[in-house]
Write a structure and sequence with these properties.
Helix content: under 10%
Mean pLDDT: 93
CATH topology: Jelly Rolls
CATH class: Mainly Beta
Structural class: mainly beta
Shape: globular
Number of domains: 1
Strand order of the largest sheet: 2-3-6-16-8-9-10-11-15
Number of strands: 17
Low-confidence stretches: 2-9
Largest sheet: 9 strands, antiparallel
CATH architecture: Sandwich
Order of helices and strands: EEEHEEEEEEEEEEEEEEH
Strand content: 35-45%
Distance between the termini: 10 Å
Length: 223
């Protein structure tokens, strides 16, 4: 996930709210650099290595995960906690939907923040209630997906959280029965990327604010 030569740097690349950005451009080793200003390097675990898993990406290089024990851990970083606004955005390519894309929190009901697959669709759950998009993306093609939690007191899945597919607001297929539970993320688990996911990930970003529709669209544009 490298910028195209001669292309202007996106303002979103330098946004002060960008608290983690993993491009996965490495071709060897087990460390993924953080391209935000926070230096939150991620470690490839479960036998995962760039030597074997580096592949052509949507932007530059990317990483292929095979499920099993493969996971990418951002050691020491517990993510965005409480009810704070947030955005998670990334490129993915898969033919076998399942697993988590990005997750953190506390393994109790309502205290997790899991952006991943729910009933074979991309969605989000705090482990109590869920929200997922109608469209399936298991076509082994590149797709940009994002979740946005805006400012609210408190935010909940039903009224506030938005999902995006390829730069546009996604049509929602289903909302869980506990969708009015507040999003109040705990501070125990470090940020994990790709747990139990089989496919390719690229350009994973976390912002500690709610990006606008146009900003999500910008991230999904060819670069």
């Amino acid at each position: 996930a490298v910028a195209v030569a001669g292309a202007p740097a996106s303002s979103l690349d330098d946004d002060p709210a960008l608290v983690g950005w993993w491009k996965f451009d490495e071709t060897s080793g087990t460390t993924a650099a953080d391209s935000s200003k926070h230096g939150r390097a991620a470690t490839l675990e479960g036998g995962l290595s760039f030597n074997d898993a580096s592949v052509a990406g949507r932007i530059g290089r990317a990483i292929r995960l095979e499920g099993k024990d493969h996971v990418i851990r951002v050691a020491g970083y517990k993510g965005i906690i409480g009810q704070h606004p947030r955005t998670v955005a990334l490129w993915l390519k898969t033919a076998t939907p399942g697993g988590e894309l990005v997750s953190w929190g506390e393994p109790d009901a309502g205290k997790m923040f899991i952006f991943g697959f729910i009933r074979n669709r991309v969605g989000v759950t705090p482990r109590g209630g869920y929200l997922y998009m109608k469209a399936g993306i298991q076509d082994d093609s590149w797709h940009h997906v994002a979740v946005v939690v805006p400012e609210a007191s408190p935010p909940n899945l039903h009224d506030h959280v938005k999902l995006y597919l390829d730069g546009e607001k996604a049509e929602i297929d289903d909302i869980g029965l506990l969708d009015l539970w507040p999003i109040d993320t705990g501070e125990k688990q470090e940020v994990l990327i790709g747990r139990r996911f089989r496919g390719i990930l690229d350009d994973v970003r976390i912002y500690d604010r709610a990006l606008t529709d146009e900003q999500i669209r910008e991230l999904a544009r060819p670069r």
